[in-house]
Amino acid sequence: MRPNLSKKQLSQISLSESCKAIILGSLLGDGSLKLYKPYKNARFWIRHSWIQKEYWDWKIARLSEINTKRSNQVQSPTGYSKQKKLLFQSAALEKLTQIYNITYKNNRLYIKRKWLNHMSTLSLAIWWLDDGSIIGNGKRGVFCTDAFSKKDHQLLQRYLHIIWKIDTKLGILNREYKGHTKQIYRLYLNNQALKKFLVLIMPYAPIPSMIYKYCILYKDPNLQERWISEMLVAFPDWETNIRESIQNRKLKLKYFRK
User: Fold this and answer.
1) What is the per-residue pLDDT across 143-179, written as a single tens digit (0 to 9) for each?
2) Taking every annotated instance into account, which residue ranges of this chain make up the domain Homing endonuclease LAGLIDADG (predicted)?
3) Could you identify which of 175, 196, 206, 209 might form a hypothetical disulfide with 54, taking C-beta atoms 3.0 to 4.6 angstroms apart as the criterion?
4) What is the pTM of this model?
């Protein structure tokens, strides 16, 4: 059960619930709040690759109350990527500074239940579309929140379990970084948890080009049809898109070519 948050500070900030939901979900994913000197107020930033333009357009269309005429920018390819980048930079607003003061500490995102509790299903959908992936031959899920600490992940894991009844497993990976081995952490969802989570969030982010983020894959035709039926509850007009996305994903995996 979600706690009553009506009297909490974050609830009193005069932004729409959808705007706050997108900001909070993005903070766990591809967004950030930044407070630069000499400005006294924070800005909200989002950056996506060009191939996610439809998703970016959908997201920033819901942030009109914090934008300016210069908020939407296109960045040229860099040495790290040949793709252009899409950048959203909000106005510098006191309302965003209030959120910054709740979610940041020493200029770093601070994972705490006091603001995670304000996340909605839309927030979860944004987090998934930013940093979630379906893995394990299309049957399991993962949040690639590599920048967060083990303690951060444990807080996120407990939050998902208590508030949303979604169980995850904390995984550890070793990555080479500047000649050293670095441990990173991720949250994994088994098939049952992934299905439960996607059924929860799908209706809140209907974006055709991101449909692959919801496509769980099965070899068993009956199980596959059951999942397609679940997707059609959220996206009743997208059957062709759903079936094509599933088929295209299966063609890329050896598991389904055997």
Assistant:
1) 999 999 999 999 999 999 999 999 999 999 988 777 7
2) 21-197
3) 209
4) 0.93
